[in-house]
Design goal:
With about 400 residues, this protein is an alpha/beta fold. The protein contains 13 helices and twelve strands. The strands form three sheets. It has a six-stranded parallel β-sheet with strand order 2-1-3-4-5-6, sandwiched between helices. Strands 7-8-9 form a three-stranded parallel β-sheet, sandwiched between helices. A three-stranded parallel β-sheet has the order 10-11-12.
């Protein structure tokens, strides 16, 4: 009988980078059942409608990508409430809590990790500092409890896959687990080089940790056109900062983003990204990337060949690099070639290989272990229980 496979993602409320990666995972296992804490068909542009995602008790509140954040303390409980009984293989796609699902003792759980929950780990101090003083202590307590839950959840996963070297290091540091690096997929066919215009481009969720304010201030100084594509809680503040050469579009359809990518002088990346899918999308469009020289973008952009880096995350440093870097001197063909190793087909083939290897390893007899008279998928835990009976 074929193995029953469950696919789990944190939440399916909009279509960002992590959701596009999960969509590629879903396409690699077309018969699998899909689970998530909360789901919004409209927000995800119908991408998962054919999979009828199964949700948690939080779905009754019908949160959207604008309203889900106040429910954050409840999501660990929500993800543990998903009923995964009877599934042989569970593949979670996690940037916060999906790796915490509870699976059968005989199941194999592989987690594709976009990042350990940033607000509890890498961004904890910045998160606390940004809150009013009376809220810091209760928030610190909540984040400490989240860390405890997160670490315990991580020990239940059979194998981790990380989207970059940066994430693999965090998985090891925070969870004490090793992770194989598999860069996320990019829908390369969406992008093509176009005639280059006068605008520079930012494509990002407008969150504080993305540091879009650095780009706004830099292009205010330069008086050079900058288009900012994206939405988020920082939008109102960023609009107040913006001068006459900075324009905000909000979220745009894929076709419009691809057109802007192909015609931009360069994409500007101001955050230390875990990987940075937008950077590869820019390369696939034949356009270079100007980025903070930190994080996962170092794994996709080559200084002087497909882009340029600035060292200090300040408007002055970014403006200096933009002023001296000539995007038109970069060969578009070199950018397109650099993007090819991040194709969806390669990602899906590697995911299937890693999952198959993990299942085989969990079923393989261990030295000195008596073979158990059992059938089906049995990882180490179940085999040991059978051997001891």
């Amino acid at each position: 009988m074929p193995a029953r496979v469950a696919l789990v993602h944190d939440f399916l409320l909009d279509l960002r980078g992590a959701e596009r990666v999960f969509a590629a995972i879903c396409d690699a296992w077309p018969e699998a059942d899909v689970f998530t804490a909360v789901y919004d068909e409209e927000g995800t542009e119908g991408r998962f409608a054919g999979r009828a995602p199964r949700t948690s008790f939080l779905q009754a509140l019908r949160p959207t990508h604008r309203t889900f954040r106040p429910l954050l303390p409840l999501y660990p409980h929500a993800i543990e409430s998903l009923d995964l009984r009877g599934y042989d293989i569970v593949i979670s796609s996690s940037s916060a809590w999906a790796h915490g699902v509870l699976v059968d003792a005989g199941a194999v759980h592989v987690c594709y990790c976009h990042n350990p929950f940033r607000y509890a780990w890498s961004e904890r101090e910045a998160t606390l500092a940004a809150r009013p003083a009376p809220l810091r202590l209760p928030l610190a307590v909540l984040l400490s409890r989240w860390r405890q839950w997160d670490w315990i959840a991580a020990q239940r996963v059979d194998r981790y896959i990380a989207n970059s070297d940066v994430t693999a290091l965090r998985v090891h540091r925070y969870f004490g687990r090793d992770a194989e690096v598999l860069h996320p997929p990019v829908e390369l066919d969406r992008f093509t080089p176009r005639p280059v215009g006068a605008n520079y481009l930012v494509v990002a969720e407008l969150m504080a940790h993305k540091r879009i304010d650095v780009a706004v201030r830099a292009f205010n100084r330069l008086r050079v056109p900058l288009i900012v594509v994206g939405d988020g809680p920082e939008l109102r503040r960023l609009r107040r900062l913006a001068g006459p050469t900075v324009r905000f579009t909000g979220r745009l359809p894929d076709a419009d983003v691809a057109e802007l990518m192909g015609s931009a002088r360069a994409l500007v990346v101001t955050a230390s990204e875990e990987f940075g899918i937008a950077a590869v999308e820019s390369l696939a469009s034949g356009r270079p990337v100007i980025a903070l020289g930190d994080g996962g973008v170092l794994e996709s952009v080559v200084e002087g060949v497909t882009g340029a880096y600035y060292a200090a995350n300040s408007a002055e440093a970014l403006a200096a690099v933009v002023a001296r870097f000539d995007p038109l001197a970069i060969d578009p063909a070199a950018c397109v070639a650099a993007a090819q190793r991040f194709g969806t087909g390669r990602f899906q083939a590697m995911m299937r290989r890693i999952v198959d290897e993990t299942v085989a390893a969990e079923r393989a007899p261990r030295p000195g272990e008596r073979p158990a008279v059992v059938t089906g998928l049995l990882p180490r835990r179940a085999r040991r229980a059978a051997a001891g009976s």
